[in-house]
Amino acid sequence: MVIYFILAIIVTLITIYSIRFNEKSQKILYVSTAILMTLIIIVRDSTVNKDYGIYKQLYEKAPTLSVLKNSFSEYNDKIITEASYSMLCTVLKETENSDKTNFIIIFAIYAIIGVAVKTIAIRRTSDLPFLALFTYFCNIYLLQEMTQIRAGIALGFVLLSIKDLYDRKYWKFILWIIIGAFFHTSAFMALVLIFFRDIKADKRVWGTIFLICVIINITQFDILNLIKIIPFEFYQYKLKAYILLQDRADFKINYLNISFVLQNVIIIVCFFYKKLLEEKCQYINILLNMCCLSSCCFVFFGQIPGFAFRISELFNISLIFLIPQLAKVMTPKYIGQLIVLSIGWLLFLINVLHSGLLQPYKTFWS
After folding, report:
1. In Å, what is the CA distance from 64 to each residue of 52, 90, 95?
2. 183, 150 in Cβ contact below 8 A?
3. Is 296 left (phi over 0), alpha (psi -120 to 50) or beta?
4. End-to-end alpha-carbon separation of the chain, Å?
């Protein structure tokens, strides 16, 4: 785990001292940090990925290239995961590489795309790019780029779409979501954000919705019947898979887990400073609505823990932009920056020491 802490210290120091550089030097420093984060992922051994066994099964079950050449429709019927991963596996299996080499290539490609899309989105959207980069590293980098590599890329495109949603470039927004769904179909659920574009985040409205979700959760209202009215067979299949996994693991959600409590504290603080934040951040209503939607979905879908976590993570990607905004409203200024850094380190420690999602780091040649 030492390498994770070394990288965290490096990213923290870069964030703190970045303000001392001119604009050109900051760009070089930003890109260099992104490259370093990418390299750490590329050179790690495949088994560091806790979902390695799942990816190996998907690799083995990917149809042959001959099926793809003969009929894409037939190929699509045979794949059991998103086309991007299956097609990459199909092509690599035709080479003379060993399976280990192919996995190194697969994870390298996903690492490059995952980090690149998110860092571009941060640079494109945030006026506090280094604090946002630091938040990204502490909050989701280790989870998504190390483990949830398909979902990680999908959420990166959701992050990239926020600016176009705000600018009302809806076709471009939809295009980013479709590209994201090519890597993980959960990205399609982000299309609902179109309906939140012109809705101002209201603490009373979201407080009421959250309370209703809590009541539904406590009363054990059978939300599983909702699956029957979903018009897309693929999503019915995905949800049933989550339910089957839940039945086998008998996993229960702890709603007082530190990450979820912290997320809701951040939401409350942002509502407290909302007027000031609206003056300083044009995206604040979209970001707050996303984060509130994340919390509500987490509670509402509590009967299906795997799905609850997945959909919650889809919308709380907004925390990458939201948390750094706290640095603008706290006085004196250094207190605000210290709070953001403290939140980031708390999330980092949860991911590394408490979540159990990370394996000890080692390189593929060790």
Report:
1. 21, 6, 12
2. yes
3. alpha
4. 15
Contact yes or no for 364/40 (Cβ under 8 A): no
**Amino acid 236: pLDDT:** 55
Tens digits of per-residue pLDDT, 319-365? 999 999 999 888 788 898 999 999 999 999 998 887 777 778 888 87
pTM of the model: 0.90
Tokens, residue 4: 């994770």
CA count, 13 A, side-chain hemisphere, 252: 3
Which run of H or E residues covers position 22? none
* Cis preceding-peptide flag for 332 (omega within 30 of 0): yes
* Of 298, 83, 114, 309, residue with least CA distance to 209: 298
pLDDT at 63 over 90: no
Determine the Cα–Cα distance for residues 125 and 37; give it in Å rounded to an integer.
20
pLDDT per residue over 253-295, tens digit each? 888 888 999 999 999 999 999 999 998 899 999 999 999 999 9
Cα–Cα distance measured from residue 263 to residue 140, given in angstroms and rounded to the nearest whole number: 13
Secondary structure letter of residue 128 according to DSSP: S
Query: Looking at residue 243, what is its pLDDT?
Result: 55
12's tokens = 């923290």
Contact 135, 344 (CB under 8 A): yes
